[in-house]
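Friendly challenge for the regulars: who can give me the structure tokens for this chain first? No prize, just bragging rights.
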Amino acid sequence: MAFLETATSLKAERPEGLAPVHAAHWLGDAIVLVQGYIEGSTLAALIPDGSGFGETPNEALGFLRTLFATVERLHESDYAHGDLKPDNIVVAADGRPTLIDPIDFAAGIDGEISTTAYAPASGNRFERDRFALLKIAEELFAKSGMDPEDAKPLALAIFEVREKVPKLATLQPVMEAMDNVETTIRQRAEGKAEAAGCGISKMPRAGLGRCSCAVV
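First reply, four minutes later:
Bragging rights claimed.
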């Protein structure tokens, strides 16, 4: 069975970012899969308001960069989750995400499992993973209360990945946009902190025909 072959492969290779598979058995009328327990909360439990998670742009961007990198490493190992959604992402206390339930239990005639809200109308497992990440990113950006001007390049990058042919082929535009926006937010905060902390005012210095900044 394809399921057992995938489980055996995951057990042997233990891709980083996936919950470890310890054993898989076909009992004739049932499948038994033994996976490692992952301590933490599902992203589905953390996304709603009031959870204290991802409530600032920096928190949302930092988590999403880690999540995107986790899925990218998985894809580089030639694995894909295929049914990525907040319920299948466990977030540890340190913010590190782990993907759970990566193996498709569906019979071949039923097709692969996917969750409609987090899957495109068509596409392979790798493309479904990327679509899901974009949807999750939109939810976290909205929750974080990000400035509309900062959100604009992120929305454009997400649109590019979804719509530019070949669609959902890479996450790179979004990852680059997140890096740029994170830098912009940091520089803005540093500028405000410097201005507030220094208490700068313009005072004319003796003997000079122009104003020069002095710390008061």
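The radius of gyration is 23 Å. Confidence is low (pLDDT under 50) at residues 105-111, 207-216. Your move, everyone else.
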